Amino acid sequence: MISVLRTSPRPGGTGPSWRFNWVGRIGLAMILFWAVVAIFAPMIAPYPIGEIADWDYFGPMSGQFWLGSDYLGRDVLSRILVGSRYTVGISLAAVFAACAGGVILGMVAAVMGGLFDTLLSRLLDAFNGIPSLLFGLVVVAAVGSSIPVLVLTLAAIYLPGAYRFARALSVNVNAMDFVTVARARGERTPYLIFREIFPNILGPVLADLGVRFVFIVLLLSGLSFLGLGVQPPNADWGALVRENIEGLSLGAPAVIFPCIAIATLTISVNMFIDNLPKKIRDRSE
Amino acid sequence: MTQQPLVSVRGLRIGAVTDAGRKVEIIKGLDFDIHPGEIVALIGESGSGKTTTALSLMGHCRPGCAITGGSIRVGRHDVATMSESARAHLRGTEVSYVPQSAAAAFNPSKRIMEQVIEITDIHGLMPQAEAEKKAVGLFRALALPDPETIGTRYPHQVSGGQLQRLAAAMALIGDPELVIFDEPTTALDVTTQIEVLRAFKSVMAAGRIAGVYVSHDLAVVAQVADRIIVLKGGEIQEEGGTDDILHRPAHPYTKALLAAFEPVPHVPAARGKAPDEAPILQVEHLFAGYGAVRKGEPDVKILKDVTFRIERGKNLGVIGESGSGKSTLARAVAGILPAYRGAMKFDGAELRPDLQSRSKDQLRRCQMVFQLADTALNPAQSIEAILSRPLAFYHGLSGRAKAARVAELLDMVHLPAAMRHRLPGELSGGQKQRINLARALAAEPELILCDEITSALDTVVAAAILDLLKELQTELGLSYMFISHDLSTVEAICDEVLVMLKGEVVEQLPAARMAADAQHPYSRLLISSVPQLDTGWLAGLDRTG
Q1: Taking residues B175-192, what's their average pLDDT?
Q2: Of A7 and B248, which is predicted with more confidence?
Q3: Rounded to a whole number, what is the distance in Å from the CA of B224 to chain A's nearest CA?
């Protein structure tokens, strides 16, 4: 059982109180932790990112190198701290772009229906058919790797899925009488999608956003693994795993800790999204 | 009575805990008995605890609720203190349940027979062949068509009334001593309701089975029950024989229930009419339908050649059973479903068939109120947001003027102004329907299309809504087009009545002389199917229908 607590004991006042369980709180704390790390990374990193600080490679955890050293003898802690900027920044930007685009298009398609819906759906279905890693490879090979290109590519890859999901939800809401009432009042599409439909699909859309964030982190790591993501000497967490993969047989911390960092971020995002704070509403008041 | 009662309930208390941690008592100490072979009705408005009480006889509570005190004895068992597995053994064999919506209770992907005899299989009562034979016998006793083969069909292949009887067969197959009926005919239309009630009554009488019949419809209860228990707020208000309750009610709530059933004859609003005033709505040779449009005609044609007019300040009732095209007519007039042929005039000016080509002013002057307030109000918007939108949209109000008008609208529909902070999910059915109406009034319309707005409400609440409609009419000079399958409602509010059958108007009558003047056989059938507050009404009906 998840323990449930109320943030403010109800003093009989009129202000709403919120319910926010521990799982959600831990998730939020982890996300905030990584966000703070990403912002202040250059200040708190003990060594510059490219500096070869250790004479040994795949060094163990020690007082000098808290998380050991990597295959060139660079400090892993510093590289993870600075890498958080790329992983958190690029993935968040991409997931918001993908979900915003997909959800808006999905709602518009559901409300307008007809030919617009059919054409857009088929087009995005066709796009969905292209393997995502292959698409990423082609784009990066064609225009080169830079942060805006990575964000846009990742967003484009995950947009059709978000569109499908949002459209399926919106079609159901669109059939409800309150949307018909709004339509009969003469409301235009922007009002219908943002005021009538969006609030009613928000919950599932957020859950979808959490899952999609994980996919994007993993795909970004995959691209970096192939050498197409963030370029050296900088590295995101996926790239850190790749460059140190040979250390796996040596049990080097250099390969374990980037994996742990990816896991903590993706799991905490989902813990938070699945346990968003809920307003307590009590009928008798 | 010397006989030991089959069920005796003493000091029953059921409570729940809200998510704010507040304890709520739903049932506050009930005592009642049910004798073998007796049918007891639990009546009361929504929220009175009638379903909660009925379910507790099986030891079942809805999620979040729990039996907090008292004893429930059914046969030799004390249901309140039994373990869950012992209760499971009891259910189906000694106590069984017929749900409100049989359509939702059947698994659509399994054949009916499999589901009907499932109870015998679960409890290992008899071999399958024997169970099927018994089921066929029950189908016959419940007057189902083709009793030998109906079990091989899927649930969607039989009608709603038949499905409800099949649900009863499912409940009866394990030879229970007590059957709980939870509003089993509320979702059916009047002509079907009669067949179902008749079937229930004969089977229960033949098997000497005791029953609990939960309903808010006093007229239905009068046909089936031996004794009536009136509940309100989780307490028994009155208990007595059916005849006593119907003819000599003692408690004010029972009197209110009965009074709500007596239709108050409609007095047409007296107002001076200019001789050359155009009717508010004039519809000529209207055709409408659904589906893909080919050669200017849709695939599924619903409305055929409908012609009528509504004078300003008058009310038109539209009646007919489900599928007769009543709602389609309202949708075509409102422009939600564009008519493909025919002409409409609103206050003398042409009304185009589709929404896009109507002016904002025309949209404002004709508002539609939907049947189910649950789905007609956006669950994510507060009442204030719902009522504010038409004010901002049609009248350009904002800020304090808008807030003042919202409070005024709430007052108009007799709701407290504090209600504006709530979400629709936090209101009762009757309150939601009032908000639904207030939203239409916010536009300051001249014609309101009411699509079965009282059908989902219980009698007392529905009567209050009708009173409200009449009051608003005299205050604001509105006209209503009132769609319903309930004749007494139509009689209570309308001047003229349109009888519809399969998308066509079969007859147009003055409401006051509906019973006397109806000529068409279908109108007569509809009128004779309305249950009367008389215990002998069902038995006295012509069997051939």
Answers
A1: 81
A2: B248
A3: 35
Any chain A CB within 8 A of the CB of B370? Answer: yes
Distance from CA of B331 to the nearest CA of A (A): 10
Q: Residue A15: inside a domain, yes or no?
A: no
pLDDT confidence of residue A263? 87
Alpha helices in B142-214 (DSSP H): 160-172, 190-207
Mean per-residue pLDDT, B121-129: 87
Extents of the domains making up chain B: 37-55+100-261, 290-540
Phi/psi of residue B126, nearest 5 degrees: -160, 160
Architecture of domain B290-540: 3-Layer(aba) Sandwich (3.40)
- Let me know if residue A9 belongs to a domain: no
Specify whether the CB–CB gap between B83 and B29 falls below 8 A: no
Give chain A's domain count: 1
CATH fold, domain B37-55+100-261, is Rossmann fold (3.40.50)
Hey, do B37-55+100-261 and B290-540 end up sharing a CATH topology, with the first three levels equal? yes
| CATH number of the domain where residue A265 is located | 1.10.3720.10
Alpha carbon of B376: minimum distance to chain A alpha carbons (Å)? 4
Cβ contact, residue pair A185, B378, below 8 Å: no
Which residues of A fall within a CB distance of 8 Å from B426?
Answer: 281, 283
* Residue A1 lies inside a defined structural domain of this protein: no
| pTM exceeds 0.95 for this model | no
Instruction: Please give the mean pLDDT across all residues of chain A.
Output: 84
Distance (Å, whole) CA B301 – CA B312:
30
Residue B447: per-residue pLDDT: 92
**Per-residue confidence band for B509, with pLDDT thresholds at 50, 70 and 90:** confident
Pairing between strand B39-43 and B227-232?
parallel
Neighbours of B55 (CB within 10 A): 19
Q: In this predicted structure, what is the pLDDT of residue B448?
A: 92
In a domain? residue A260: yes
Q: Lowest-pLDDT range, A22-36, A85-99, B193-207?
A: B193-207
Contacts of A283 in chain B (CB under 8 A): 18, 426
With a CB cutoff of 8 Å and minimum separation 6, the contacts of B295 are: none
ipTM above 0.90, yes or no: no
